[in-house]
Amino acid sequence: MTTDLTAGTPTPGSRPHVILGVSGGIAAYKACELLRRFTESGHDVTVVPTAAALRFVGADTFAALSGRPVSAEVWHDVHQVPHVRIGQSADLVVVAPATADLLAKAAHGLADDLLTTTLLTARCPVVFAPAMHTEMWEHAATAANVATLRERGALVIEPAEGRLTGADSGKGRLPDPEEIFEICREVLSRGVATPDLSGKSVVVSAGGTREYLDPVRFLGNRSSGLQGYALARAAAARGAEVTLVAANVTLPDPAGVKVLRVETTAQLRDAVVSAAAGADAVVMAAAPADFRPVSHSDTKIKKADDGSAPAIELAQNPDILAEISHDRARGGQVIVGFAAETGDATGTVLELGRAKLARKGCDLIVVNDVSGGAVFGAADNQAVILGADGAVTDVPLGSKGALAHAIWDQVLARMP
Questions:
Q1: Is the Cβ–Cβ distance between 141 and 134 less than 8 Å?
Q2: Where would I find the beta strands (DSSP E) of 63-143?
Q3: 221 is catalytic
Q4: Which residues are listed as membrane-spanning (predicted)?
Q5: Does the annotation place 318 within a ligand binding site?
Q6: Distance between CA 73 and CA 51 in Å, rounded?
Q7: 196 lies in a domain?
Q8: pLDDT tens-place string over residues 279-333
Q9: Residue 281, in any domain of the structure
Protein backbone atom coordinates (compact mmCIF):
# COMPACT_ATOMS: atom_id res chain seq x y z
CA MET A 1 0.00 0.00 0.00
CA THR A 2 1.34 3.43 -0.93
CA THR A 3 0.81 6.56 1.19
CA ASP A 4 2.25 9.20 -1.16
CA LEU A 5 3.24 11.65 1.58
CA THR A 6 4.31 14.28 -0.95
CA ALA A 7 0.98 14.34 -2.77
CA GLY A 8 -0.73 17.68 -2.82
CA THR A 9 2.48 19.71 -2.94
CA PRO A 10 1.21 23.29 -3.30
CA THR A 11 1.67 25.44 -6.37
CA PRO A 12 2.23 29.22 -6.23
CA GLY A 13 -0.92 30.97 -5.01
CA SER A 14 -2.30 27.83 -3.33
CA ARG A 15 -2.96 27.32 0.35
CA PRO A 16 0.05 27.71 2.70
CA HIS A 17 1.70 24.34 3.23
CA VAL A 18 2.52 23.66 6.88
CA ILE A 19 4.54 20.74 8.21
CA LEU A 20 3.44 19.89 11.73
CA GLY A 21 6.15 17.88 13.42
CA VAL A 22 5.18 16.02 16.58
CA SER A 23 7.78 14.50 18.87
CA GLY A 24 7.30 11.98 21.66
CA GLY A 25 6.11 13.82 24.73
CA ILE A 26 2.89 13.58 26.69
CA ALA A 27 1.85 16.96 25.22
CA ALA A 28 1.59 15.27 21.79
CA TYR A 29 -2.16 15.08 22.26
CA LYS A 30 -2.31 18.90 22.16
CA ALA A 31 -0.93 18.79 18.61
CA CYS A 32 -4.40 17.63 17.53
CA GLU A 33 -5.88 20.97 18.57
CA LEU A 34 -3.10 22.86 16.80
CA LEU A 35 -3.69 20.74 13.68
CA ARG A 36 -7.41 21.50 13.80
CA ARG A 37 -6.75 25.24 13.95
CA PHE A 38 -4.47 25.06 10.93
CA THR A 39 -6.85 23.02 8.80
CA GLU A 40 -9.95 25.03 9.75
CA SER A 41 -8.18 28.27 8.82
CA GLY A 42 -7.39 27.00 5.32
CA HIS A 43 -3.84 25.69 5.67
CA ASP A 44 -2.66 22.53 3.93
CA VAL A 45 -1.04 20.45 6.68
CA THR A 46 1.20 17.41 6.58
CA VAL A 47 1.76 15.82 9.99
CA VAL A 48 5.20 14.26 10.48
CA PRO A 49 5.37 12.50 13.85
CA THR A 50 8.27 10.64 15.39
CA ALA A 51 7.83 6.97 16.24
CA ALA A 52 7.64 7.94 19.91
CA ALA A 53 4.87 10.47 19.19
CA LEU A 54 2.77 7.68 17.68
CA ARG A 55 2.83 5.93 21.05
CA PHE A 56 0.79 8.87 22.40
CA VAL A 57 -1.42 9.70 19.38
CA GLY A 58 -2.13 7.24 16.58
CA ALA A 59 -1.39 7.95 12.93
CA ASP A 60 -5.07 7.48 12.08
CA THR A 61 -6.00 10.43 14.31
CA PHE A 62 -3.56 12.74 12.60
CA ALA A 63 -4.62 11.47 9.17
CA ALA A 64 -8.30 12.03 9.90
CA LEU A 65 -7.72 15.58 11.14
CA SER A 66 -5.33 16.57 8.35
CA GLY A 67 -6.93 14.71 5.46
CA ARG A 68 -3.49 13.47 4.46
CA PRO A 69 -1.53 10.24 5.03
CA VAL A 70 0.80 10.11 8.00
CA SER A 71 4.07 8.26 8.47
CA ALA A 72 7.16 8.52 10.64
CA GLU A 73 9.28 6.43 8.26
CA VAL A 74 11.66 7.51 5.51
CA TRP A 75 11.01 4.15 3.78
CA HIS A 76 7.44 4.89 2.70
CA ASP A 77 7.05 6.07 -0.92
CA VAL A 78 10.82 5.95 -1.41
CA HIS A 79 10.43 6.83 -5.09
CA GLN A 80 8.91 10.17 -3.99
CA VAL A 81 12.00 10.90 -1.82
CA PRO A 82 9.79 12.14 1.06
CA HIS A 83 12.71 12.90 3.37
CA VAL A 84 13.69 15.67 0.93
CA ARG A 85 10.45 16.64 -0.82
CA ILE A 86 8.38 17.30 2.30
CA GLY A 87 10.77 19.93 3.63
CA GLN A 88 11.34 21.49 0.23
CA SER A 89 7.63 22.12 -0.30
CA ALA A 90 6.90 23.70 3.08
CA ASP A 91 6.01 27.31 3.79
CA LEU A 92 6.40 26.66 7.52
CA VAL A 93 7.62 23.85 9.75
CA VAL A 94 6.38 23.84 13.34
CA VAL A 95 7.33 21.16 15.85
CA ALA A 96 4.89 20.94 18.76
CA PRO A 97 5.73 19.51 21.14
CA ALA A 98 9.49 19.63 20.69
CA THR A 99 11.13 17.36 23.27
CA ALA A 100 14.66 17.76 24.62
CA ASP A 101 15.68 14.82 22.42
CA LEU A 102 14.23 16.41 19.28
CA LEU A 103 15.89 19.77 20.01
CA ALA A 104 19.23 18.00 20.51
CA LYS A 105 18.92 16.15 17.20
CA ALA A 106 17.92 19.31 15.34
CA ALA A 107 20.79 21.31 16.85
CA HIS A 108 23.36 18.67 15.90
CA GLY A 109 21.95 17.92 12.45
CA LEU A 110 21.04 14.30 13.19
CA ALA A 111 18.63 12.77 10.70
CA ASP A 112 17.42 9.32 11.69
CA ASP A 113 13.71 9.64 10.90
CA LEU A 114 11.33 11.53 8.64
CA LEU A 115 10.94 14.54 10.94
CA THR A 116 14.64 15.18 11.49
CA THR A 117 15.42 14.77 7.77
CA THR A 118 12.58 17.19 7.00
CA LEU A 119 14.12 19.74 9.37
CA LEU A 120 17.43 19.49 7.51
CA THR A 121 15.87 20.08 4.09
CA ALA A 122 13.44 22.87 5.03
CA ARG A 123 14.38 26.34 3.83
CA CYS A 124 11.27 28.02 5.23
CA PRO A 125 10.71 29.45 8.73
CA VAL A 126 10.99 26.78 11.45
CA VAL A 127 9.21 27.08 14.81
CA PHE A 128 9.88 24.85 17.81
CA ALA A 129 7.41 24.75 20.73
CA PRO A 130 9.32 22.93 23.50
CA ALA A 131 7.62 20.82 26.16
CA MET A 132 9.49 18.92 28.86
CA HIS A 133 10.11 18.83 32.58
CA THR A 134 11.67 21.93 34.13
CA GLU A 135 14.94 20.18 34.94
CA MET A 136 15.32 19.10 31.31
CA TRP A 137 14.56 22.61 30.00
CA GLU A 138 17.05 24.18 32.42
CA HIS A 139 19.82 21.64 31.74
CA ALA A 140 22.95 23.17 30.21
CA ALA A 141 22.77 20.81 27.22
CA THR A 142 19.23 21.90 26.34
CA ALA A 143 20.10 25.56 26.85
CA ALA A 144 23.05 25.18 24.46
CA ASN A 145 20.92 23.39 21.88
CA VAL A 146 18.23 26.08 22.03
CA ALA A 147 20.87 28.80 21.66
CA THR A 148 22.32 27.01 18.63
CA LEU A 149 18.94 26.70 16.95
CA ARG A 150 18.17 30.36 17.57
CA GLU A 151 21.53 31.42 16.21
CA ARG A 152 20.72 29.51 13.01
CA GLY A 153 17.47 31.40 12.58
CA ALA A 154 14.91 29.03 14.10
CA LEU A 155 12.21 30.41 16.36
CA VAL A 156 12.24 28.51 19.65
CA ILE A 157 9.24 29.58 21.74
CA GLU A 158 9.74 29.81 25.48
CA PRO A 159 7.69 27.10 27.23
CA ALA A 160 4.91 28.06 29.60
CA GLU A 161 4.81 27.58 33.36
CA GLY A 162 2.24 25.31 34.93
CA ARG A 163 1.28 21.72 35.61
CA LEU A 164 3.53 19.10 34.04
CA THR A 165 3.16 15.33 34.20
CA GLY A 166 2.45 13.73 37.54
CA ALA A 167 2.41 16.13 40.45
CA ASP A 168 5.16 18.36 39.04
CA SER A 169 4.72 22.01 38.10
CA GLY A 170 7.14 24.52 36.63
CA LYS A 171 8.48 25.90 33.38
CA GLY A 172 8.33 23.42 30.54
CA ARG A 173 4.62 23.19 29.75
CA LEU A 174 3.57 23.40 26.10
CA PRO A 175 1.98 26.81 25.44
CA ASP A 176 -1.71 26.87 24.60
CA PRO A 177 -2.23 25.46 21.06
CA GLU A 178 -4.30 28.51 20.11
CA GLU A 179 -1.41 30.79 21.00
CA ILE A 180 1.12 28.59 19.17
CA PHE A 181 -1.16 28.87 16.14
CA GLU A 182 -1.25 32.67 16.46
CA ILE A 183 2.56 32.81 16.60
CA CYS A 184 2.78 30.58 13.52
CA ARG A 185 0.25 32.73 11.68
CA GLU A 186 2.37 35.80 12.46
CA VAL A 187 5.46 34.04 11.11
CA LEU A 188 3.64 32.95 7.95
CA SER A 189 2.23 36.42 7.34
CA ARG A 190 5.71 37.93 7.26
CA GLY A 191 7.25 35.22 5.10
CA VAL A 192 10.70 35.92 6.58
CA ALA A 193 12.82 32.88 7.37
CA THR A 194 15.02 34.53 10.03
CA PRO A 195 13.50 36.23 13.12
CA ASP A 196 14.80 39.81 12.96
CA LEU A 197 14.35 40.55 16.69
CA SER A 198 16.30 37.48 17.76
CA GLY A 199 18.62 38.30 20.63
CA LYS A 200 16.64 41.42 21.59
CA SER A 201 14.80 41.87 24.88
CA VAL A 202 11.62 43.94 24.82
CA VAL A 203 9.00 45.06 27.31
CA VAL A 204 5.38 45.72 26.36
CA SER A 205 2.66 47.08 28.62
CA ALA A 206 -1.02 46.42 27.96
CA GLY A 207 -4.47 47.05 29.36
CA GLY A 208 -5.82 49.73 31.67
CA THR A 209 -5.00 50.36 35.31
CA ARG A 210 -7.54 50.62 38.13
CA GLU A 211 -7.45 53.05 41.02
CA TYR A 212 -9.71 51.84 43.81
CA LEU A 213 -12.15 54.07 45.67
CA ASP A 214 -13.29 51.23 47.93
CA PRO A 215 -13.27 47.40 47.74
CA VAL A 216 -15.92 47.52 44.98
CA ARG A 217 -15.43 50.67 42.90
CA PHE A 218 -12.49 51.99 40.94
CA LEU A 219 -11.44 54.64 38.44
CA GLY A 220 -10.41 53.03 35.15
CA ASN A 221 -10.60 53.23 31.39
CA ARG A 222 -11.77 51.24 28.39
CA SER A 223 -8.44 49.73 27.30
CA SER A 224 -8.89 46.04 26.44
CA GLY A 225 -5.22 45.15 26.12
CA LEU A 226 -5.69 43.77 22.58
CA GLN A 227 -3.10 46.07 20.98
CA GLY A 228 -0.51 45.39 23.67
CA TYR A 229 -1.04 41.65 23.36
CA ALA A 230 -0.71 41.92 19.58
CA LEU A 231 2.59 43.74 20.08
CA ALA A 232 3.85 41.05 22.47
CA ARG A 233 2.79 38.24 20.12
CA ALA A 234 4.39 39.93 17.10
CA ALA A 235 7.66 40.49 18.96
CA ALA A 236 7.74 36.85 20.07
CA ALA A 237 7.11 35.72 16.49
CA ARG A 238 10.08 37.83 15.42
CA GLY A 239 12.35 36.13 17.95
CA ALA A 240 12.47 38.64 20.81
CA GLU A 241 12.55 37.81 24.49
CA VAL A 242 9.30 39.45 25.58
CA THR A 243 8.04 40.62 28.97
CA LEU A 244 4.39 41.68 28.93
CA VAL A 245 3.14 43.81 31.83
CA ALA A 246 -0.64 43.31 31.75
CA ALA A 247 -2.99 45.58 33.69
CA ASN A 248 -6.39 43.98 34.30
CA VAL A 249 -6.44 41.94 31.09
CA THR A 250 -8.26 38.61 30.81
CA LEU A 251 -6.78 37.53 27.46
CA PRO A 252 -4.80 34.24 27.25
CA ASP A 253 -1.04 34.56 27.63
CA PRO A 254 0.73 34.83 24.26
CA ALA A 255 2.99 31.85 23.58
CA GLY A 256 6.61 32.35 24.57
CA VAL A 257 5.93 35.56 26.51
CA LYS A 258 6.60 36.25 30.20
CA VAL A 259 3.47 37.88 31.63
CA LEU A 260 3.48 40.08 34.74
CA ARG A 261 0.01 40.98 36.03
CA VAL A 262 -0.69 44.29 37.79
CA GLU A 263 -3.72 46.36 38.77
CA THR A 264 -2.79 49.92 39.72
CA THR A 265 -0.64 52.52 38.02
CA ALA A 266 1.91 52.33 40.83
CA GLN A 267 2.22 48.57 40.29
CA LEU A 268 2.49 49.10 36.53
CA ARG A 269 5.23 51.67 37.04
CA ASP A 270 7.26 49.39 39.33
CA ALA A 271 6.95 46.40 36.98
CA VAL A 272 7.85 48.38 33.84
CA VAL A 273 10.82 50.17 35.41
CA SER A 274 12.18 46.88 36.76
CA ALA A 275 11.74 45.01 33.46
CA ALA A 276 13.09 47.93 31.41
CA ALA A 277 16.47 47.68 33.15
CA GLY A 278 17.55 44.91 30.78
CA ALA A 279 15.44 45.77 27.73
CA ASP A 280 16.45 46.94 24.27
CA ALA A 281 13.01 48.47 23.74
CA VAL A 282 9.94 49.36 25.77
CA VAL A 283 6.51 49.87 24.21
CA MET A 284 3.99 51.51 26.53
CA ALA A 285 0.69 50.38 25.03
CA ALA A 286 -1.09 50.31 28.38
CA ALA A 287 -3.46 53.07 29.43
CA PRO A 288 -2.45 54.10 32.96
CA ALA A 289 -5.02 56.09 34.92
CA ASP A 290 -3.84 59.71 35.11
CA PHE A 291 -5.31 60.19 38.58
CA ARG A 292 -5.91 58.17 41.76
CA PRO A 293 -8.05 58.87 44.82
CA VAL A 294 -6.10 60.49 47.65
CA SER A 295 -7.85 58.21 50.12
CA HIS A 296 -9.26 54.70 49.87
CA SER A 297 -12.15 53.39 51.92
CA ASP A 298 -11.74 49.93 53.41
CA THR A 299 -15.50 49.47 53.31
CA LYS A 300 -18.00 50.08 50.55
CA ILE A 301 -18.99 53.73 50.32
CA LYS A 302 -22.75 53.97 51.00
CA LYS A 303 -25.27 56.28 49.36
CA ALA A 304 -26.28 59.26 51.45
CA ASP A 305 -29.94 59.45 52.48
CA ASP A 306 -30.11 63.07 51.35
CA GLY A 307 -29.01 62.16 47.81
CA SER A 308 -25.67 63.96 48.01
CA ALA A 309 -22.57 62.46 46.42
CA PRO A 310 -19.24 62.16 48.25
CA ALA A 311 -16.42 64.45 47.22
CA ILE A 312 -13.47 62.57 45.82
CA GLU A 313 -10.07 64.22 46.01
CA LEU A 314 -7.67 63.08 43.30
CA ALA A 315 -3.88 63.05 43.04
CA GLN A 316 -1.86 62.76 39.85
CA ASN A 317 -0.26 59.40 39.12
CA PRO A 318 3.41 59.04 38.13
CA ASP A 319 4.15 59.60 34.43
CA ILE A 320 5.71 56.25 33.53
CA LEU A 321 6.44 57.04 29.88
CA ALA A 322 8.21 60.31 30.71
CA GLU A 323 10.22 58.65 33.47
CA ILE A 324 11.57 55.78 31.39
CA SER A 325 12.17 58.11 28.42
CA HIS A 326 14.20 60.67 30.37
CA ASP A 327 15.99 58.13 32.59
CA ARG A 328 16.98 55.48 30.05
CA ALA A 329 18.02 52.20 31.66
CA ARG A 330 20.66 51.59 29.01
CA GLY A 331 22.22 53.28 26.00
CA GLY A 332 20.42 52.85 22.68
CA GLN A 333 17.17 51.80 24.32
CA VAL A 334 14.13 52.59 22.15
CA ILE A 335 11.02 53.91 23.94
CA VAL A 336 7.56 53.95 22.33
CA GLY A 337 4.45 55.64 23.68
CA PHE A 338 0.81 55.75 22.65
CA ALA A 339 -1.43 58.78 22.34
CA ALA A 340 -5.18 58.15 22.34
CA GLU A 341 -6.58 61.51 21.27
CA THR A 342 -9.92 63.01 20.23
CA GLY A 343 -8.77 66.49 19.29
CA ASP A 344 -10.05 69.61 21.05
CA ALA A 345 -9.83 73.38 21.02
CA THR A 346 -6.09 73.21 21.65
CA GLY A 347 -5.22 71.12 18.59
CA THR A 348 -5.98 68.29 16.18
CA VAL A 349 -5.32 64.66 16.99
CA LEU A 350 -1.91 64.78 15.26
CA GLU A 351 -0.97 68.12 16.82
CA LEU A 352 -1.73 66.75 20.26
CA GLY A 353 0.24 63.61 19.42
CA ARG A 354 3.30 65.65 18.37
CA ALA A 355 3.07 67.70 21.55
CA LYS A 356 2.95 64.53 23.65
CA LEU A 357 5.96 63.09 21.79
CA ALA A 358 8.00 66.18 22.61
CA ARG A 359 6.74 66.37 26.19
CA LYS A 360 7.42 62.72 27.05
CA GLY A 361 10.81 62.49 25.38
CA CYS A 362 10.25 59.08 23.77
CA ASP A 363 11.54 57.98 20.36
CA LEU A 364 8.20 57.07 18.79
CA ILE A 365 4.58 57.73 19.58
CA VAL A 366 1.62 55.88 18.10
CA VAL A 367 -1.27 58.28 17.61
CA ASN A 368 -4.82 56.89 17.67
CA ASP A 369 -7.95 58.89 16.94
CA VAL A 370 -10.36 57.52 19.54
CA SER A 371 -13.25 59.86 18.81
CA GLY A 372 -16.55 58.16 19.56
CA GLY A 373 -14.79 55.33 21.40
CA ALA A 374 -13.05 53.99 18.29
CA VAL A 375 -10.24 51.42 18.74
CA PHE A 376 -11.17 50.24 22.25
CA GLY A 377 -11.97 46.53 22.20
CA ALA A 378 -11.94 46.38 18.39
CA ALA A 379 -10.01 43.81 16.37
CA ASP A 380 -8.74 46.45 13.92
CA ASN A 381 -6.79 49.66 14.35
CA GLN A 382 -5.26 52.45 12.35
CA ALA A 383 -2.67 54.93 13.51
CA VAL A 384 0.05 57.38 12.65
CA ILE A 385 3.50 56.60 14.05
CA LEU A 386 5.46 59.77 14.77
CA GLY A 387 9.21 59.73 15.32
CA ALA A 388 11.28 62.16 17.36
CA ASP A 389 13.44 62.40 14.24
CA GLY A 390 10.50 63.81 12.27
CA ALA A 391 9.46 60.55 10.60
CA VAL A 392 5.75 60.01 9.92
CA THR A 393 4.37 56.55 9.17
CA ASP A 394 0.68 56.29 8.30
CA VAL A 395 -0.69 52.80 9.07
CA PRO A 396 -4.06 52.24 7.37
CA LEU A 397 -6.96 50.39 8.97
CA GLY A 398 -6.09 46.75 9.45
CA SER A 399 -5.60 44.17 12.16
CA LYS A 400 -3.95 45.15 15.41
CA GLY A 401 -1.32 42.55 14.53
CA ALA A 402 -0.50 44.45 11.33
CA LEU A 403 -0.08 47.67 13.31
CA ALA A 404 2.09 45.81 15.80
CA HIS A 405 4.49 44.74 13.05
CA ALA A 406 4.58 48.27 11.66
CA ILE A 407 5.58 49.52 15.11
CA TRP A 408 8.29 46.88 15.49
CA ASP A 409 9.63 47.78 12.04
CA GLN A 410 10.10 51.34 13.25
CA VAL A 411 11.63 50.18 16.53
CA LEU A 412 14.08 47.86 14.75
CA ALA A 413 15.17 50.67 12.43
CA ARG A 414 16.22 52.69 15.49
CA MET A 415 18.05 49.95 17.37
CA PRO A 416 21.86 50.23 17.39
A1: no
A2: 92-98, 126-130
A3: yes
A4: none
A5: yes
A6: 8
A7: no
A8: 999 999 999 999 999 999 999 999 888 888 888 999 999 999 999 999 998 999 9
A9: yes
